Amino acid sequence: VITINEYLDNILSEFKAYATSGVELCLLKNVHFDGGRLPNYSDIHIQQLYLLRYAYAYGFEYKQMYKSLWHRVKSSHTLRVTSIGCGSMIDYWALTQVVPENCSIRYTGIDAIDWSYRFDPRPQDNVSFLNTDVVSLFDSADVLTSDVYIFPKSISEFSHNDIQILGNSLSKKLPAGQTVYLLFSLRTDEWNLELDMRKTKILFDAMVGSG
Fold it and tell me: Can you tell me the distance from the alpha carbon of 172 to that of 141, in angstroms, rounded to the nearest whole number?
C-alpha cells in the first residue's frame, strides 16, 4: 500500500498544476465548515484541497481507532468492515497499517460522492466501493454482514432524521457474527461533540435494543 506521504505528494502535484494554470480559485474559499455548511465534495479540486488539508491527520486518527479495535479482535484472520461515508478510503489505508499481513480485510466503502484518489487494495484484500445513498442501502439490507461499521468523519454530515432511519434499520437487522463494532470519528469542540454524541447514542441504543 502506498505511504500517506506518497499519496499526498501525488495529490499536491495535480493540485499545484491546477492552481498555477491561471484559473479562478475563488471556489476554493468555500472549503470550510462554518455554520454547519459542507464543501461541494463532487468537485475534484475541492477534493484535492480537502485531502491536502486533512488526510494526514485523519489517517493518524483512524489508525488509533483501528489499533484500539485490533486489541479486541486480534485473533481474527478476516475482518469485515463497512465504512459509511468513506470518502477516499483513508480509513482503509489506516486499517492496513494496523493489521498483520495474514489478516484479510473485506472492506466495503459507501459514499454518495464518487471520490477520486481512493486507495488501491492490498492483494489479499477484497475492497469494493458503492456510490449510493447509505440510508436507502441499509433500509433494504436483511443482515448486518460486517464485523465493523465505521463512520469516518461522516456522523456529523448525516441529518438527525437520517440517523433515526439508520437506527430503525439497524434495530431490525441480525448481525452475521456474534459481535458488531461501531466506530465513530467525532468532532472535538464542545458544541459539535454534543451533537455528534446524540447521533451515536441513537445508533447505539438501536443496536442494544435489538439484542
Answer: 10
Question: In this model, does residue 136 exceed pLDDT 70?
Answer: yes
91 touches 83 (CB < 8 A)? yes
Q: Return phi, psi of residue 152, to 5°.
A: -85, 95
Residue labelled with grid coordinates 443496536: 207
As given in the structure block, the three cell numbers for residue 79 are: 475482518
Query: What are the grid coordinates assigned to 131, written together?
Result: 456510490
AA identity, residue 96: T
State how far the Cα of 152 lies from the Cα of 55, in Å rounded to an integer: 11
Average pLDDT, the chain: 89
Q: Which helix (H) or strand (E) holds 86?
A: none
With CA atoms as reference, report the closest residue to 173 among 197, 140, 124.
Answer: 140
Looking at per-residue pLDDT, the higher value among 1 and 92 belongs to: 92
Closest Cα partner for 183 from 97, 50, 52, 86? 86
Cell numbers found for residue 206: 438501536
Determine the Cα–Cα distance for residues 185 and 164; give it in Å rounded to an integer: 18
